């Protein structure tokens, strides 16, 4: 395994002291991860494309109401959501083969989910994404 990215190492340090999941739960998570990635990746792309269309149409009206920043944040969040979904689809084949590349793509998709939550000021999204990071790091050792 190549030298790990400092971002991955930094985020992992936040989770390393948390209790470990039972082995059976980890194995189940590794078995379903590729399928969740492909399903949510496809749904995310479809949703992002729809949101991008809606945000493009609505942006002038939002901007007229004094919400230029809101319109911009909406478009940025939509683009980041699209990238997040593409990363999940890219991760799918490697996750099936338990390759570290797939895990890494899952990590970056999850990090983008946190960023989208921050951009959209969604505390719920940020908290949910931070909880998912726990599962991502719990299964990291299964990917080589």
SS summary, helix count = 5
The run of helices and strands is HHHHH
Q: Describe the global form.
A: elongated
**Structural class by secondary-structure content:** mainly alpha
How much of the sequence lies in strands comes to: under 5%
Number of domains as seen in the coordinates: 1
**Integer-rounded radius of gyration:** 17 Å
Average per-residue pLDDT, rounded, comes to 88
Count of DSSP strands: 0
How much helix, percentage-wise, in residues?
over 70%
Low-confidence stretches: none
Q: Strand count, sense and closure of the main sheet? A: none
Report how far the terminal alpha carbons are from each other.
7 Å
Structure characterization notes:
With 144 residues, this protein is mainly alpha-helical. It has one domain. Helices cover 81% and strands 0% of the residues. The chain is built from five helices and no strands. The radius of gyration is 17 Å and the shape is elongated. The model has no long low-confidence stretch (mean pLDDT 88).
Key terms:
144 residues
Short structural summary:
This protein has helices at residues 6-15, 23-64, 68-96, 100-119, 123-138. It has 144 residues and is mostly helical. It has one domain (22-142).
